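User: Hey, my collaborator sent me this sequence without any context and asked if I could get a structure. I don't really work with proteins. Can you help?
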Amino acid sequence: MRHNLLTALGCLLALLGSFSVLSARERVVHLIDFGVKPQAGYSNTAPLNQAIAELARTTSPSDTLTLVFAPGVYEFAKDGAPVATYHISNHDHAPLRSIGINLKQLHNVRLEGMGAEFLFLDRMLPIAVVESSNIELRNFRIDFRHPQLSHVRVEENRGEGGLVLAPICSAQWRLTGQGELEFYGRDWSNRPYVAIAFDGATKRILYRTADIDLSTKGSRLLDEGRILAPNFRDERLKAGTVLALRTYERPNPGIFLSDNTDVRLENINIHYADGMGLLAQNTHNVSLDGFSVRLRGDSDPRYATTQADATHFSGCSGHIDVRRGLFEGMMDDAINVHGVYLKLIKRVDNYTVEGQYMHNQAWGMDWGKAGDSIQFVASSTFEVVGQGNTLTAIEPVDTPTLAGAKVLRLRFANKLSRQLNPSNSIGIENLRKTPSVTFADNTIRHNRARGTLLNTPKPIKVEYNVFDHISGSAILVSSDCNQWFESGQTKYLHIRGNLFLDVLTSVFQFTEAAISLFPVIPQLEKQRQPFYGDGKNGITIEDNVFMTFDEPLLFAQSVDGILWRRNRVIQTDSYPKFHWHQEPFILKGSRGFVKE
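Assistant: No problem. I've predicted the 3D structure and written it out in structure-token form, which is a compact way to encode the shape of the chain:
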């Protein structure tokens, strides 16, 4: 009898579940019906966010809500914008951020752009997706009317007399009372102090230039549109060179993802962002297909796109999949994946420690929760210290709530090793926030610093990409518990079928070779066990083509097991050799290198 009742109950639950699936529906809404329209001089910020809030309130959570834009250009101003306090990893902190399109605590929502352009008039966070699930964004582009990354063309190089410059970007500009070149928009201004030099014809970063210190003090107007900067001198900058002038400010990314599950971005172009193109943190499963950070084409007078990385993933989990994108002109990597080390600053008792966010752009975000698996490393040697442990409680020390905290009190299930005390300089890593990564069929070109920066113990695949004139290393793996505090013990990395075309034309941090595996280890000589790799099949580099003017192909520090096979090297004469490594393979503190 009991068995029959259980069977009947099971059938009833299955029937109810089927009914729920069948009753779920897709609700398609054309936003023009809610006053959202592609009209010059009309701000869509308030009407769009009001429409989203109303539609979310009146749509069943089990339904899919599809928001459809009519084709055209949509302007967004910060007047009437939702505001929020978000601690965005690797960006400048701000008490409040104005948000163009606010998608918070939503489920089963699709935003269909139909090729529309979202044009932002002020300093804003264009799109925020927060505490949501099953979200899809597709078929639109993002740009700013007055990008804060400005451009000038070198009209004449007068040697000791300085440079004659002509602003060519869409931002407004003026000379201050001290003769400094200042760019400005409706609600911002900056005085750049760093220049990135591009070849005027190819849009490639000039060979061996990297970051150029810039001083425009004492400048004067020669005639309409031309400025003499007598204190800006550099013999490498010939007439026709284009300079991207910048500060190191990172106000906002183009798209911000935080504390979500299952987010898909498809066929999206970001032409400019004040920070990263995409910043994702604490998000489980992110898929990018045809997501690009790129110029607008041949008609675009700009040479640079974003102030930092094209895409950046901090403290994420599940799987990150990035395919079929074009990433060009960024001021940093095409993709950067990492966790965040806390520094152990206090041992409270045998089960409790306090840890602190150390980098000034990485605090305030959610670091962990009870049940997370935790690993400890010594920052001087990158040796794993003690056994892994399980977090049982986490609470803020310096703030009333976890949001915005810099110091956290962490309690663990098992007794802590005596080595875990501040005198040993210990980093604390959350192993739950470690995704697997696929980066495939992308083109990365003409950008500053690096192509990819990947740090995670889960499997990484970098396949069938084109790395075209990256000014630093094409692929970098670099965990650091001393400066950036970006975690990730990379064990399984498969680099296959890629084309490396004249990369490493300048010197940036950790750019030791075309592929640089470089954990930052101050006392490498004291390390007993390599940090990266997992034996013979941990790191595999195969079936790639290196077209290179210089020698260094692979730098590996503290790696256990590298298989190098069927890679083709073609020497070019594009530039003179210059790198301090003049051998193809440089191994330090590593073992198990096999070349087939």
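In plain terms: The first strand starts at residue 26 and ends at 30. You can pass these tokens on to your collaborator as they are.
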